[in-house]
Amino acid sequence: DEDLIATPVGTTLERYIMRKQAEFPFATGELSQLLRDIALAGKIINREVNRAGLSDVTGAYGRENVQGEQQQRLDMAAHIRFVRALRNGGQACAVLSEEEEAIIYTGNDQAKYVVAMDPLDGSSNIDVNVPIGTLFSIYSRVTPVGSKANETDFLQGGRKQVAAGYVLYGSSTMLVYTTGHGVAGFTYEPSLGEFFLSHPDLRIPATGTTFSCNEGYWFEYPAYVRTYLENCKRSRMNGRYIGSLVADYHRNLLTGGIYLYPPTGKNLDGKLRLLYECYPLAFLIEQAGGAASTGTEAVLDVTPEHYHQRCPLIIGSAELVNEYLVCAAAEVSA
Ligand code: P6P
Asked: Is residue 305 marked as binding?
């Protein structure tokens, strides 16, 4: 058989998952199946996203989610699709979604995994055709198989994730994920309905020339954040901010750069959510050789207190994150 390690570019996701599973003799295939179920949900959502303007899925859903934001129809559709795919796949016993306050039981109490997800992040971007993304984070349950999952399964901490990734519905649709052995990127071929391995071993450059943040908060940022941003500008770095986390993140992962959602006057912990936005992206970035910090500690070391807690996110090339931390430390010691 072909060399199991050097998986050729162009391999399908299915063959890649089977090859990777073969490298772990004790693997039982449940995580593999869970990843397939997530990929399937991504394909279904991709179809809905790509025709959002045509079918009646844009515009407000008429309800507010736990964030107090108007729910866009498409992010509710994505939420429903994901929960259904995970329920039917049978590998997840419970799901935490940005769209629901409480965890959702799939009915598969014998399943070994729980999934925290943001079914469609940046859904306010849908109506204006800006790229959007799905984020997911997977844990092995700690409650007994057969029992009802509970918050101890979801609040294990970022370093207990067994897998994490995202689907980016952009100019092409990509699935990017890690199981703790590097980061792989797959590009979707809609005419075949398959994801193909296009980025076998994603590594973020140690530094970069892009910084991504919403400078509209300039006068709300702590002084050290402004100091850091002024340094970026003196270095003639590029400002690139799409306002869609997965799209900004993915660009910086490929080209090098830093994404910042620091504390603001409105949100002292930033706006992004720890369990299904910051943790999965932090797991991925560390696997890709980058860094993710709150400004005072590594994101993956943040102690989770509740499902929808917010967390400042400074993430990207290790050298750029470190330069930010130097500014933060200078202010604290001043
Ligand atoms: P702001 C979109 O609502 C989102 O959750 C992320 O996708 C994006 O990076 C961020 O919030 C944008 O927030 O405050 O800059 O509009």
From this structure: no
